[in-house]
Specification:
Layout lengths: L1 H10 L7 E5 L3 E2 L21 E2 L2 E6 L6 E2 L3 E5 L2 E7 L9 E7 L2 E7 L5 E7 L8 E7 L1
């Protein structure tokens, strides 16, 4: 009986809540970049991927790009930004965004997430920064 009660209380604790982990690629892949034909130039070249600049979060429909501002705290070599959400957020949609200059990669975060932490570690030459997101239900 004690084991059953312990199991029930453990399942309800935050330590066992679902987590989502996402990390930005260090570089936007060069093979994914298509240069338009302008008619004025013979060709274009992207010699290597575009390095990561940073990351953030958007809320709502992705077309609106509602950038969120969380509460930030400094850590050794970077910072952590905390974002909190209501379960009934309107309009729905939470997005993790990776910035590569004017190019952005976006990945949808679970609608059930109520808290996310974005960890940004500053780069050491010649590396790009490390940007990770962890969200919990």
């Amino acid at each position: 009986m004690k084991t059953l009660l312990l199991a029930i209380f453990s399942l309800g604790s935050p330590a066992f809540a679902a987590e989502q982990h996402i990390e930005c690629p260090a570089r936007y892949p060069a093979e994914d970049i298509a240069l338009p034909q302008s008619g004025q130039w013979e060709t274009g070249l992207v010699p290597a991927g575009i390095p990561l600049d940073g990351g953030g979060m958007y809320a709502g429909p992705i077309q609106r790009r509602g950038e969120l501002r969380g509460s930030e705290r400094r850590i050794k070599g970077g910072f952590v930004t905390h974002f909190g959400f209501d379960r009934d957020q309107r309009p729905p949609g939470k997005w993790f965004v990776c910035y590569y200059g004017h190019v952005q990669l976006m990945r949808r975060v679970a609608d059930t997430a109520t808290a996310c932490e974005l960890t940004h570690k500053n780069p050491t030459f010649p590396d790009a920064p490390t940007v990770k997101l962890t969200c919990r239900d």
